Amino acid sequence: MRAQPLTPTSANAPSPTLLHDGFRLHPAALDPDAQQALVVAVLAAVEAAPFRRSETPGGRRMSVAMSNLGPLGWVTDAGGYRYQPTDPLSGRPWPPMPGIVADLWRRFTGRDEAADACLVNLYRDGARMGLHQDRDEQDLTAPVVSVSLGDTAVLRLGGPDRRDPTRTVRLASGDVCVLDGAARLAFHGIDRVLEGSSRLIPGGGRLNLTLRQAGPPPP
Ligand code: SIN
Ligand code: FE2
User: Does any domain span residue 104?
Assistant: First the structure.
């Protein structure tokens, strides 16, 4: 796969790299202060909906711990994968999405309508994520913005068919990637996290934020 440089989308960000059609990687898009501010804001916000390791519909406990911010949150349990407005642990709405998180959606998608979901993934102790597609959203053409904070991850990225060839991409703290266009339904997963490669996250590990428009598309 050839990497093609693209025109910068924002004056203060380096040029994103197009790795597959529609997969845009913005290396070092967030400076250390911005990364720190995001970690502080996100960890404070998720206190009201603590990280949990959920079960897949098949009954396997995920190694990644998750929470959500914003009007809709992604959940998995015996009932399936879905978005819902309340935290199943408390029955209460998910905590609001901090403004500095919501701003990232506008900056990296250029969309005026706000993101309605931010899934927060915490990778500790060898956590990983198997190859999957993101397809629980109502509008599968709305992009996904993924923000990496803390330890570097090895992302495996394929195509829209599970059997498509895959490549690996390292995602360091402050990198932002966007799955859009043909890459919106690309299979992807996290092979591993390079433990101790960053000191950003209290207690170690990696935090990943995925921002989406998961609910009904705006009229
Ligand atoms: C995800 O696919 O939900 C997470 C990807 C990542 O952790 O970078
Ligand atoms: Fe995903």
Answer: yes
Cβ of 65 closer than 6 Å to ligand 1, yes or no, is no
Give the H/E segment covering residue 101. helix 99-109
For atom 7 of ligand 1, which residue has the closest CA? 208
- Domain of 81 in residue numbering reads as 31-212
**pLDDT (tens digit, 9 = 90+) per residue, 15-29?**
676 666 899 999 999
Residue found under tokens 């956590």: 127
Q: Summarize pLDDT for 119-149 with one digit per residue, the tens.
A: 999 999 999 999 999 999 999 999 999 999 9
Sheet holding 129-132, edge to edge: 129-132, 188-193, 153-157, 167-171
Question: Number of structural domains, the chain?
Answer: 1
For ligand 1, whether the C-beta of 147 sits within 6 Å is: no
Query: Ligand 1: distance of its center to the CA of 4 in Å?
Result: 23
What ranges make up the beta strands (E) of 78-116? Answer: 80-84
Tell whether ligand 1 has an atom less than 6 A from the beta carbon of residue 208: yes
